[in-house]
Amino acid sequence: MPLLSRLVRRWGVRAVGLVLTAIGLYVVFPGLLTLFGSWPRLRDVTFWWFLVVVVLVVGSMASLWWLTRLALRHRTGPDDTWSTVSWGTAASAHLAGNAAGKVVPGGPATAGVVQARLLIQSGQPASAVASAITAMGLLTTGILLMLPILTIPALLIGPPPARQLEYGLLVSVVVAVVMVAVSTAILVWSPFVVAIGRLSGRALHVVKHDITADSASAALVTARDRVAASFRGRRTRAVLAAAGNRMFDYAALVAALAALGAHVRPSEVMMAYAVAQALALIPITPGGLGFVESGLTTLLVLIGVTADQAVVATLLYRLIAFWMPIPLGALAWAGWRLNRHLTGRGAASDEAQPEE
Q: Which domain holds residue 49?
C-alpha cells in the first residue's frame, strides 16, 4: 500500500498538472493564433531593430549568469583566493533551466531544478547551489515587485515634455540606479526592512487576518538575511546584476515598440511589463505561455498603443525573449553533456581568482 500510495501521489499530481496545462492552453490558444497570425507583419520591421532586441535580451540573460557566479563565489584558502563557477557553466546551467521552464509545466520550479542539477554535476556543493538558487530567486522576485512601486511616481507626475518612446532606454538606466540604491539599503539597513514589513503586514491584514505587522516584518527580515548572507561582500554587484536582468528585458520590450513606431509613455510601458512578468509566474502553462501574450497585448492597447502595433510588438518581443532561449537552452544542455562525456568530468572546473 505505501508503494501504491506513493505512485498515486506522484503520478496523480503530474496528471492534474498536465490537465490544468491542457485547459490553460485551450483557453489561450485563440489568442496565440491571432498573435502568430501577425507573423508576416514582422517583415515591416527594420532588421537592425531585431539586433537591438536580441542584444538587450542577451544582456538580460548575461546578468543572471553574473548573478549565478556571485552567488556561488566562496573562499578556497587563507590567502584571499576565491573560487566560483565558470562563465560557461553558469550560462549553460541557466540556459538549460530556462528552456526547461518554458516547455515543461512548473515554470520557475522546473527551471530551478534543472539549473541546480547542472551546477551540482559540474562540481558545485549541493548545499551551496540550493542556497544560491533560493537567494537568486528572492532577489530577482524582489526586484520585480519593486517595479510597480517605482513606476507610480512617474505615472502621477504626468507625461514628460517629449513623449518619444526611445526615452524608455534612459528610463531603464535611471530605474536600475534607483533599484540598486533601494535594494542595497534594504540589505544593509534593518530598520528600513522592519518598517517596510510592518507597513506591508498592515495592508495584507485587511484581506488576510492571520497576517500581522509583526509576522510580515519577521518574514521579510528572514528573507533579507538569507539574501544578504548569500551575497556577503558582493551585495551591490548582486543587486546590480538582478536589476540589469529586469531592465535589459524591459528595454527589449521598449525597443520592440519603438520598432513599430509606437508613441506611449515609458512609465506606462514599465507598468505593463511588470504585470506581464507577474503573469509569466502563473504555473498553468509553461512560462505563462498565452497568458503573457494576451495580457501584454491588452495592457499595451490600454495605455495607448494601437491594436496592430501592440500585437506585432508583443510578437517581436516574445519571439526573442521567450522562444529564442529554448533552442539555445537545448544546445547548451547538449554541449554540456557532450563536453562532460568527452572529458569524463564536469562541464567546467572552478576557477580561482583574487578578491576584487
A: 39-354
